[in-house]
Amino acid sequence: MGVAPAPARLLTMTADSQPRQRNTRQRAAVASLLAESDEFRSAQDIHAALRSRGASVGLATVYRNLGLMAELGEVDTLVRDDGETVYRQCSDVHHHHLVCRQCGRTVEIAGPAVESWANGVATEHGFSEVSHTLELVGLCAGCAAPGA
Asked: Distance (Å, rounded) from C-alpha 7 to C-alpha 52?
């Protein structure tokens, strides 16, 4: 019994040898939907929203496009406490997120102290080219307000 080959990717190479995803109608629809929201959304939510708009796109296609977009740095991902991966279109500069655990409101934040700390720890232990992610989770003012 052999191992099944890896699925083909929709990647091409740019002139500077960087991979990029081929533009498709489905990818454009996913990107457009993500651009409309500041919140992280699951693949199932994105799929349902696209279908409600009349788009003919399968859930597997949404997952595949989100995975490739994440790999290419076009979307950020978070893994929620329940294990589900959620996606958000973010800015191109390095940043962190402050996420409301109740409503999902998300704010991009800079963290110069975190950057300095991470680089210092890496240097101290002989590491270089270090990357990291930092997500702060709490309650936004609206959800923390009495009676919310």
From this structure: 28
CB 46 within 8 A of CB 30: yes
Q: Which residues contact 91 (CB under 8 A, 6 or more apart)?
A: 108
The end-to-end CA distance of the chain, in Å, is 57
SS3 95: coil
Which CATH number does 10-90 carry? Answer: 1.10.10.10
Burial class (CB in 10 A: 0-12, 13-18, 19+), 147: exposed
Distance (Å, whole) CA 36 – CA 53 = 14
**Can you give the residue ranges of every domain in the chain?**
10-90, 92-148
The values of phi and psi at residue 41, to 5°, are -135, 145
CATH number of 92-148: 3.30.1490.190
What are the residue ranges of helices labelled H in the chain? 25-35, 43-52, 59-71, 112-124, 141-144
pLDDT tens profile 56-108: 899 999 999 999 999 888 898 988 888 999 998 887 777 888 888 888 888 88
